[in-house]
UniProtKB/TrEMBL annotation:
Keywords: Methyltransferase, Transferase. Coiled coil: none annotated. Residues 64-170 form the Methyltransferase type domain. The keyword rRNA-binding does not apply. It comes from Chroococcidiopsis thermalis (strain PCC 7203). This is Methyltransferase type 11. Pfam families: Methyltransf_11. NCBIfam families: AsSugarArsM (NF038099). GO terms for biological process: methylation. It comes from the Bacteria. One of its GO terms (molecular function) is S-adenosylmethionine-dependent methyltransferase activity. The keyword Zinc does not apply.
Length: 322
């Protein structure tokens, strides 16, 4: 059995018998006015963060949701799009598709705004998405891509890039590892399926996204997720996993490299009223300007005493330099 079959079997089991708290972080699902999440759906919250960013879902976007789970985020996306077929949710596991269908049906009775036609559940997988090229505004996946081995992750990211419209967004939430996960854990297929041993480091994860063609990556959140302790996992030292929420844009990669926004700002502290780097960045004296990490590094090298670069907040929600 391949690790993907082990994964499918695992999610078939947890579709039939929900495992409360399997992946979730210590936070309740995003609450929105007039949105009621059925209990069965909450119990199947198998995501490690959120991919639903309310301020970015204007104009009823078409959303392709990969790995539907119990349907929680599909319902949340439908809340914003509210039209038939606006959310296409894909899953290869029949039991999971059935559970999501049941849960979405239950949502109808609790949410007067919701019609089940808003979410279309389709059989399919992350490597062969059942939609045409450049046809969706958003691709979202929560706690799935971290399970994939590196070559499969690249395939899944390229497939997301294929189906996105130009400028479209890949909204993801995944565990990342604070140092490389040892091979003996990476090869444990069940741990991998449980989102505990396939995670890449932050640098590997963001580089893989860029290598798949995404020219801009924005980090929405980064927080502690799980500890792999040295006793249970046969490690020399404890290993912390974090969860990372990101939005990656299908825009061309600039000649000098992708823009990755992690919440850094640059502040001109010189004596003039502003500083212009002649590369498109004008800093008003004393006023923080959001910059991507690439620009932050360039400015810090160019003007080490007159430009102060603040640390990554790991919470970036827009605006910026590039
Ligand atoms: C960790 S769960 C996350 C579920 C959901 N995103 C959530 O946040 O609750 C992973 C989901 O991906 C599905 N899945 C497994 N293998 C997949 C694949 N190759 N392509 C797409 N989905 C897959 C599983 O059936 C399951 O629904």
């Amino acid at each position: 059995m391949s690790y993907l079959e082990t994964t499918a079997k695992f999610y078939s089991e947890v579709a039939e018998t929900p495992q409360i708290g399997l992946c979730c972080v210590q936070s309740s699902p995003l609450q929105l006015p007039g949105l009621k999440i059925p209990l069965a759906m909450q119990e199947m919250n198998y995501g490690c963060g959120t991919t639903v960013h309310p301020t970015e879902l204007a104009n009823q976007p078409t959303v392709l949701y990969v790995g539907v789970g119990g349907g929680l985020e599909a319902l949340q996306f439908a809340y914003f799009s509210r039209r038939p077929g606006a959310v296409i949710a894909v899953d290869p596991v029949a039991a999971m598709r059935e559970a999501a269908t049941r849960n979405l049906q239950a949502a109808v009775t609790e949410n007067s705004w919701f019609d089940p036609s808003f979410v279309e559940i389709r059989a399919g997988d992350a490597f062969n998405l059942p939609v045409p090229d450049t046809s969706v505004d958003v691709v979202a996946q929560n706690c799935l891509f971290n399970i994939f081995e590196p070559d499969d992750l690249t395939l899944a990211l390229k497939e997301a890039w294929r189906v996105l419209k130009p400028g479209g967004r890949l909204q993801m939430s995944d565990p990342i590892a604070t140092r490389p996960i040892p091979v003996h854990l990476q090869q444990d297929e069940r741990l991998r399926a449980m989102c505990l041993s396939g995670a890449l480091t932050y640098d590997e994860y963001t580089q893989t996204i860029v290598d798949a063609g995404f020219g801009q990556v924005e980090i929405r959140a980064r927080r502690p997720y799980r500890l792999l302790d040295c006793h249970t996992y046969n490690l020399e030292e404890n290993l912390l996993l974090e969860s990372l929420d990101s939005v990656s844009f299908k825009v061309p990669i600039p000649d000098d490299g992708a823009c990755i926004f992690t919440g850094k700002t640059a502040i001109y502290a010189g004596t003039e009223s502003f500083f212009d780097d002649s590369a498109g960045h004008v800093l008003q004296q004393g006023i923080p300007a959001a910059v991507c990490d690439k620009t932050a590094a360039k400015l810090a090298a160019l003007m080490p005493t007159e430009v102060i670069v603040t640390n990554s907040t790991w919470h970036y929600t827009g605006g910026g330099c590039c």
